[in-house]
Amino acid sequence: MDVIKLPLLLGSVRMGRRSEAVARYLLSKLESDPRFRPELLDLATYRFGLLEQRPEEMEKPPEALDAFSHRLREADALLIVSPEYKGGIPGALKNAIDLLEPGILRRKPVGICTVSAGGFGGLQCLLQLRLTVFALGGLPIPESIAVSRVQERFGEQGGLRNGSKVLETERFLEELYFYAQALKHAGQGADLYAGRR
Ligand SMILES: Cc1cc2nc3c(=O)[nH]c(=O)nc-3n(C[C@H](O)[C@H](O)[C@H](O)COP(=O)(O)O)c2cc1C
Description:
The chain is built from 6 helices and 5 strands, in the order E-H-E-H-E-H-E-H-E-H-H. By secondary structure, it is an alpha/beta fold.
């Protein structure tokens, strides 16, 4: 059985963020699934500054960016958990994505879970993230998880509130595993990303 290296990128850095509870819920599912080797990549711990220069033009790119990029390069697939802000991708997450080299997710499947306080589960963010993932060479999978009214479903200390419906993760993880495993065995092919910005 292939074990898929799967970082879970948490895209909210806000104090009191609710999407952390969703990320930890998914992490616990992944940790009990022998097909995955998950790891939390918490954007809040990286403290990237605003992009003022492309990293390749900096004299010394930030060490945190090297460490972050390394995790993504090593991964077989990526799971993004992101809130929706102002009908789109949170600025901190987009800034981190803008710092990454193009092609860093080349031929890697990307599962996306969006989180919102409102009733639509962050669908606008989901659609925008799918387009942005293409710019990194990644392949957003068709399945997704959209968590609406997160404050009603997850408690302040994390964990599902009593009576809340369990998130339907089975099909999502099944599909993510399928694509990750298939692409892992698909061979190398030429890398035409070299030199691209
Ligand atoms: C700056 C900002 C913008 C937001 N915009 C939206 C929005 O467009 N749609 C929505 O449903 N919720 C919106 N929210 C509420 C978030 O979905 C809510 O905070 C939720 O808990 C997930 O984000 P969090 O992980 O930062 O808590 C916004 C929150 C912030 C802080």
